[in-house]
Batch of 4 targets.
Target 1
Amino acid sequence: MARKYEVKYIKLLLDELGKTTGYSIDHFGFGRMSDEIFEKLNVSISAKYIYYSLHNAVKKATNENDLLNLSPNKVDDLAKFLEYENFDAFIRAFESPIHSILLSLVGDYYSYVRKNTERGILLQSPVQINVLNNKVIFKLTGPRWKYEGEMRYQDGCLFCLMQAESAKTFHHVYKIGKSESPQVLMGVFSGVSSANDPIGGRCVLIRKGIIPEGISPLKMTIEELVSSSDDNLKKLGNYFKNYADNNLKINTASGFDIDDL
């Protein structure tokens, strides 16, 4: 069943196809786009369809708010080629632009938290921050699970509720103020331990390249970091040095009454 689309949005879609592929907005360019769409998505959208049903229809329209009857499957596939979930997500990306502070976060990082034990061990996990469907997505690869969540900016802080396929979740909050492209972010995390107890503490996010490469998760002792010849490792170790400053946990809950305190 056909769906009605405003001319201005179809024109925007065609313009973005041209920018993304580098091909001209004409029959030749649409032929090249058609080939790339098939190669990437394994769906067939002919150059003839793009030229006559989209391009020519836009040119003939007398008003940008005029409506075109088009196949939603084909229009959604064109948006998917541009890395959007569907056409509606494509439009949202242009009507609700991402905050510049969030966009400035895109890149590769390491996340650091102190293991929730008296023994001084620092956990390092690689993090990727990128844009997907007009959202800034935080992806953390832990020793056991991969976590993913959308980042939000409010009141000078970054918020991310991330979840693994196992449904295990953690919440991170980082202070950023009005800074863009920060190298280091300090924050706090909260979640549930392997023993199913609430835990929390400090977390640090550092852009890749500031901390030496090749350090393995679960093998970074605070003692080694503090005595390191590398100034940045030493600063990292000192920040996480004291257990009481970095980790929170509750008393053992047995009766769930006032005597547990």
Target 2
Amino acid sequence: MADPRLEKWANALVGYSVDVQAGQTVAINGGVSAGPLLREIYRAVLARGAFPVMLASLDGLNAELLRNGNDEQLSYISPVERFVREQANVVINVLSDTNTKRLSAVDPSRQSRFQLARRELFDAFMQRASTGEMDWTLTLWPTDAFAQDADMDTEEYTEFVLAACKLDQPDPVAAWLALRDDQQRLIDWLDGKQEVHVVGPDIDLTLSIAGRTWINSDGKRNFPSGEIFTGPVEDSVNGTIRFSFPVVTAGREMSDIRLRFADGKV
């Protein structure tokens, strides 16, 4: 995708989402299909006097490992993985799947082994992020696979993603700051509220939000974003919910998910 908005995209990620500073080490993760954006991110990091570390990967390598690797190989953590989790000051991730169902035939137990081997490293990464020792952000490169999942052609989906990132605005960062202010007004209104009751065609849930903190998701961690969220009191959720839209997780599509909660338990 040759588009002048790519530079705006990279600048928004590097200058707004993670606010890269001179001297920082910045890991850039993404598939080669996202090459045009990865290159612009690399340039933007250089322009800020930081040290970019490009970690572009071939599509499907994880699937190769999960299908063909032995137990030792599944549990092996490379020095590169450790660097990203334990040392990088900033991590910029670009999702760019060319086949979102690639893992559908992989044994779930092998996926579990792979993930469990990385649990401690992931927890350390999140701890570093929570203390401000490092920062990260995640964006999505429009691919044919993502477009198909959205029942859109690739060109239409690309415009959808770029607009969601506010890259169709003269100043995307200013647009995100305006959204932050709008969302903060909602948070201020919710502050001090005790209970939420959500009612709709596929949902009837009550939950307590007493003492909980609301987060203003304004394009920092996820780009794009645009939501406010919190976690309910764990044992307060009661009722039912049905998810009408399918979801793909670990390469498997699930649809028509129905859950019933009783005192926070499914």
Target 3
Amino acid sequence: MFGDVVLILIILWVFKKIWDTDKKSPLIFFIHTGGYSLLRFGLEYIRADKEGITMFGMSNLQIALLLYGLFTIGYATKYYLDKRSKT
């Protein structure tokens, strides 16, 4: 629950920062879905369900969540840096 509150605060902060300048920015979507996937990865890791372990001691779901979370961090960072360099 604490993670959800932190994620919502981050989303609101980013929304406030970019709304006036870029109403079509995909950052809100990617921050929300990427943040959720990283929170869910942490929850699945703590839960330590040993059924379905496939690679590196993680389940398929954990691997997919981690990869998507890392992808969104990379995409959001690239998008932000590209926007900042154009201004």
Target 4
Amino acid sequence: MGILVRRAAADAAYRRRFSFREALTTVVDTSARNRDPVERVFVFLREHVGDIVNSTAALRCLRQRFPTAYLCVEVGERAAPVLQNFPGIDEVWIRPTHQGLWGKIRFLRRLRRGRFDLAVILDDSADMVLHAWLGGIPLRFGVSRKRKFRRLYTAFVPHDPSRHETLDHFRDLVALLGADTSDYRPRLYPLREDAAKAEAALQLAGWDGQAPLVGIHPGASRPHRQWFPDRFAQVCDALSEQGISCVLLGGPGDEALAEEILAHCHCQPLVLTGRLTILQLAALMPLLRTLVTADSGPMHIAAAMGTRVVAIYGPSDPTYTGPFGEGHILLRHPEACVGCSAEQCVQERKCMRRISVEEVVEAVTQLVGLSGR
């Protein structure tokens, strides 16, 4: 109860200094002031790798918008490596996967000690604006999906399911803050040593450096988004007959899936599953003619690195979760139940079964020809 009373008192003190409209003007209109009053910015980020990749576009805009502010971000443990080497971030807080009640209390205390002026919530979770409010951050901007805690926002972008979940909503959000979004695109920053290690791993796996190289990423964060191992194997075999080398990719935990694909293959794909860091995987992408993938984090990594993808979509909607940029081929045969988020599909994944091996091979062949490398 004590923290709520103190928070209410702090909010009352702040309202005596700034009305709602004045608070918005404080952030957006800096022309009437000698310096930007926002000195410390805290950014709440999401949990998944693909979301963080797409959030880098907004982070770049925020840094340009507040060039002298201290910029601190909070990110989930698994996706934190995406932000390695990212220019302009002063501090990264890692959100534990399971932090419990006391972990949240410690986080709120740390947030209050940080004395941040502005919270930018790159998520549509209502809980994060509550955390920003309890953490004593007076200016709170985010994307609002539900009415829950909506009054805690200084200003928000309403969630629109017909627009891209991260790219469109977050661009609108930073624009609301006065950022220039003319160069709005995700960026990753692998080092030269990441590229050297990725290429060395390829050579060790057996790539001769000459054959066209296609990445195969069969995994996804949710099982109902995965295509079928035997079909991935047939794609590898068909591409091998055209003189194209395939390399199996994935993170820790995807090894069993790679083994299942290999068991169905007649050819011998290269295997780098579980052997690359996120930034080494990013550095590998420019070596690929294309990446065959489900709706997954590596799909967004490839797009951010300028590599076209052949994306196999089942229940999710590419309008909402698709890759950044143009030139990708998105394969999708929606069923009546499309858009479901069930972990166990009751329709035997009909939407995925309707995507044929021939469609995937044709799409890959098209992009390999276009890449011309």
